[in-house]
Predict the structure.
Amino acid sequence: MAKKSSKSKPSGDLQLGRDVEWPDTPEKAKLDRVPNPQAGTDYLVRFTVPEFTSICPVTGQPDFAHLVIDYVPGRFLLESKSLKLFAASFRNHGAFHEDCTVLIGRRIADEIKPKWLRIGGYWYPRGGIPIDVFFQTGRLPKGIWVPDQAVAPYRGRG
């Protein structure tokens, strides 16, 4: 079957509502978009991925993060099942925290072309040091309310 253009995806091309194979790498993962039924209105969408995992590229040990993705949609919305599959594809992916966080933000921005996107990657300690990574595209449109990401700084036993 011929590959369809990514400009507009008919519902039959979406992963939503059907069994799909779990992607084993971020490169193989497909992010789906759907038309924004409120395209004439600016508003904020938030996805939270509280149990994100990847692999340390040096030690091979698992790394854990709490991701918060905020975006102001344009013509498209990010379909949540595809985001879940994309996030899961990092479970065996070896990359530093900074690379994972920025890669996710860029992939989403490239696919859905939001008016604005921000991702906060709140990583649990590696070598005793927690690392928080933030990436955003462009400027926030005027009049948009963006709640605090509400992820407390890592405090250990403090």
Observations:
- The CA atoms of residues 59 and 105 lie 25 Å apart.
- The longest strand covers residues 45-55.
- The beta strands are 33-35, 45-55, 62-72, 76-78, 116-126, 129-137.
- Residues 1-10 have pLDDT under 50 and may be disordered.
